[in-house]
Structure formats: C-alpha cells, structure tokens
C-alpha cells in the first residue's frame, strides 16, 4: 500500500531540489544529468550524508546544503534511528554514479520503486542514530541511497519522516556537485495532553456506577501524512468493571469500535472515523463503570492512554474514593451483650432521604461501604437513624447518630460506631413481703367466717328438730 501511495505521488526530480532537505523525497523521480555534467564528477572526492532531525511542521524542500541558522527549525530529536541502503543495481544495470551509465540506470526512479525491491539490489544496511543535537553524519561512497526512519527512539512521533532517495554526489546548478549533503527530514511529535475526569457516583453505596470522561485532543500531523490509527485505552482498576462506552459526536460501529468487558474499556477508530479527525479536535470518550469493591485501599485511581499513529500519551489519574462504616449494637452499655435485629437508615443529610438501610446481625454487627469524594476529597459526613430497636429494647428518645466522618484513609480502616439500647420496663409483678402476710390474714378471716356460718346453720337445724 505504501508503494502505491508513493507511485501516485511520482514526479520528476529537478536537480536543484534533489535532496531530502526539509521534506523527505517521497515519490520524487531522479533525472540523469547531462553527459558532460557526469563527466566532471571527481571519483576521488569523499562524500557524506548528514541527517538533521527536528520536530515541527514541514518547510520548503532544501537543496542539500547546510543550514547555518537552525533557530527556526524546531526542537532537535535525539535517538532517532535511520537505516541507509546503497542501491547497487537497477534492472540489471550497475548504479555507478561516477559514470554516465550509472545515472542513466536510475533515470526516473522514485522511492516507491526502490522500496518495492523489484529490479533492485542493495548493499548492507547501515544504521545510524541521531545525537543530542539531532544530527548524525555518515561517510558514504558515491552512489544512490534509500534512507528510511526505522525507530523514533524516545520521541513520541505522530508523523515520521517518509523514506527518501539521495545521490552522492548531489547535482547542483551550473554543473556543480555537492559531495557532503545535509538533509532535514522533519518529524511531528505528539504534544497533546489528554485529561480525565470522574463524576460523582449514581448512588452513594458500593455497587454504584461511576462515569469517567476522557478528553483527547487530536495531535498535529505532517502535511503529507494521514491519521492512520487513533485509539483510547482505559485499563480499569480490578475494583471496577466496564458497563458502557460512548464517544460524543461519533457513531459506534461506523466511526469506531468499542470493547467494554471486565477491566477493558477501549475504542478504536475505523477508517471512516479517522477521516473525520482534525488536528486540535477533542475526542470525548465516556466510560461508565461499576464499583464492585474497595480492596485494601478505598482510593480507586484510573488513567487512560491515547495512541495516535503509534504515539502514546496518558491522562492524569483521577480517583473515586470509598470508605467502610461499621456499627456495633449492644445492651445497656455492656458491649459483650450484643444485639441483633436493630434497623438503621443511612443518610448523607438529616434533611435528605435515606440512601441505605442496615440491620445488625446476631453478633450486633452491621457494615456498609460509602462514597466519600473524588480526587483529593477523602472524607464525608453521614448520619444513622435507628428505626427499629432489637426485640425487648426501646428506641432512644433521639434516634439520630452523627455526623459520622467516613474516610478513605488508604488503609481500609473502617470508621466504627457503638450504639447501646435500654431494655423495656418489666410488667407489674405480685407484691412480696408484708403484702404476702396481708393476703394470708385475709384468707384466715375468710375461713373463720365460713366456720361461723356453718355453726349457725347447725344450731338452727337443731332447734327445729
């Protein structure tokens, strides 16, 4: 595909512009100089190629001469690798540029032809690396060379230099020759800074959804380059799982494909979507995740990586912060007498609505994990309202407890609250002591009256008899 692109850009090489000076010579054809010009090449004059590597937009083509004032060229790029290969033969003809036949053998040749390899043979690869000043000089024999940028090194390059052809010596105007050639292939690096923001959760309790918004500026590219790839990858924290992905202004399936599965949240632009990208445009991706746990640390950070044409930049690391709250319910200030069945409502404001409910277990314990803030905010106040006391115990006159500061302290140490209940009053029991003696006295009097009554009845019956 690269070869076809180069062939579509085929032109004839004008000798005065025959160096890849400010631009790589993609598709620029070589024209053989006049026979008398080839005749004044000095085969004994040594030749060299100096590659000057800078970051920035492309300028006009150079002529192979050295630029003394480099202040306007951009930032030098160190550590860029170039691979140089000498073309030995073209369609069976020796490429000896000290002869007219050698120049005729490469007449009209473009870089796409050479990269295709058909009909050409090459010498061994020579790899060079730019220094701290962005330059590297390689002594080379006379000949035709194809030069390719093969490794950007530590530089975050969006648009590398295109492969180019250069002859040593290089034709100049007036039948002159340049034996020490300087080229200035430019690179476009990625200078964008994507950002990431986190929204408040859909609920304040564990299991809620949290949405992360990634804003990725589209970086500049070279004028002869295209956006060949654009992806945003959000490798989620294990405590999160991906729920949905959306990209503002673009259509899934047409402009991009999305992968939302477990801890993977990724979008990749299609050729259709890439064609819509413009330098400086913001691509806004929204990833909705579910918070499943807080692990050993309630501070859940997350970052994303944006890749354009192989260049990578990362976002900041926002965080959603969660903290545990634990409750102990016990009787009459005796913590060993724990109570189950106490019910509480959880509020983030006394004036609001309950956000959750807790019920103590048989050991008097209840716990909940609550959202406490984003980024640097790692504590939040909550309130508990007791709505049902354990069986046999009374609700307190004031059922509210709080404010309770719940925090994500980085160690998953819970905030603990202890709440006691009083037993209900017992019912009225029978009198004891003196009251018991009184009952016996009353019983004795009753028995005495019965005896008297029986005696009266017997006496009356006896008289009648």
From TrEMBL:
It comes from Brevibacterium metallidurans. Residues 37-72 are annotated as: Disordered. The keyword Signal applies. Pfam families: GramPos_pilinD1 (PF16555), Sgo0707_N2 (PF20623), SpaA (PF17802). InterPro entries: Fim_isopep_form_D2_dom, FM1-like, GramPos_pilinD1_N, Ig-like_fold, Sgo0707-like_N2, SpaA_PFL_dom_1. Residues 193-320 form the Sgo0707-like N2 domain. Residues 42-51 have a biased composition (Polar residues). Keywords: Membrane, Signal, Transmembrane, Transmembrane helix. Residues 331-412 form the SpaA-like prealbumin fold domain. This is Isopeptide-forming domain-containing fimbrial protein. Residues 60-188 form the Gram-positive pilin subunit D1 N-terminal domain. The chain crosses the membrane at residues 438-457. The keyword Transmembrane helix applies. Residues 1-37 form the signal peptide.
């Amino acid at each position: 595909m690269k070869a076809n692109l180069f062939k579509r850009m085929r032109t004839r090489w004008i000798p005065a512009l025959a160096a890849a000076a400010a631009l790589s010579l993609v598709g620029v054809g070589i024209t053989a100089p006049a026979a008398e010009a080839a005749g004044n090449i000095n085969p004994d004059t040594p030749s060299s190629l100096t590659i000057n590597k800078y970051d920035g937009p492309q300028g006009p083509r150079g002529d192979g001469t050295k630029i003394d004032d480099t202040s306007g060229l951009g930032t030098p790029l160190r550590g860029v690798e170039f691979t140089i290969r000498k073309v030995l033969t073209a369609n069976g003809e020796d490429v000896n540029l000290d002869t007219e036949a050698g120049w005729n053998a490469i007449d009209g040749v473009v870089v796409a032809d050479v990269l295709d390899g058909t009909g050409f043979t090459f010498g061994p690869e020579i790899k060079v690396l730019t220094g701290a000043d962005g330059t590297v000089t390689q002594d080379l024999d006379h000949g035709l060379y194809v030069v390719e940028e093969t490794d950007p090194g530590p530089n975050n390059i969006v648009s590398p230099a295109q492969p180019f052809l250069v002859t040593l010596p290089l034709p100049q105007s007036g039948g002159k020759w340049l034996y020490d050639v300087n080229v200035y292939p430019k690179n476009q690096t990625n200078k964008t800074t994507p950002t990431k923001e986190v929204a408040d959760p859909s609920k304040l309790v564990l299991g809620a959804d949290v949405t992360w918004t990634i804003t990725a500026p589209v970086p500049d590219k070279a004028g002869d380059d295209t956006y060949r790839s654009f992806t945003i990858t959000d490798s989620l924290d294990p405590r999160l799982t991906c729920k949905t992905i959306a990209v503002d202004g673009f259509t899934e399936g047409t402009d991009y494909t999305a992968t939302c599965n477990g801890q993977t949240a990724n979008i990749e632009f299609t050729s259709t979507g890439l064609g819509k990208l413009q330098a400086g445009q913001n691509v806004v991706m929204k990833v909705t995740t579910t918070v499943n746990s807080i692990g050993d640390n309630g501070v859940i950070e997350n970052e994303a990586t944006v890749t354009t044409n192989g260049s990578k930049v990362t976002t900041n690391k926002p965080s959603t912060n969660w903290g545990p709250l634990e409750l102990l319910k016990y009787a009459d200030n005796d913590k060993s007498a724990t109570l189950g069945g106490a019910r509480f409502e959880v509020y983030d404001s006394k004036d609001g609505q309950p956000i959750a409910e807790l019920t103590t277990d048989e050991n008097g314990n209840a716990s909940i994990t609550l959202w406490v803030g984003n980024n640097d905010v790692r504590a939040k106040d909550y309130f508990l309202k007791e709505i049902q006391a354990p069986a046999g115990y009374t609700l307190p006159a004031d059922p509210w407890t709080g404010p309770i500061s719940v925090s994500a302290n980085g160690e998953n140490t819970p905030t603990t609250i202890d709440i006691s209940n009083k037993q209900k009053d017992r019912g009225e029991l029978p009198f004891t002591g003196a009251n018991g003696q009184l009952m016996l006295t009353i019983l004795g009097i009753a028995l005495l009256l019965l005896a008297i009554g029986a005696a009266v009845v017997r006496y009356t019956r006896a008289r009648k008899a």
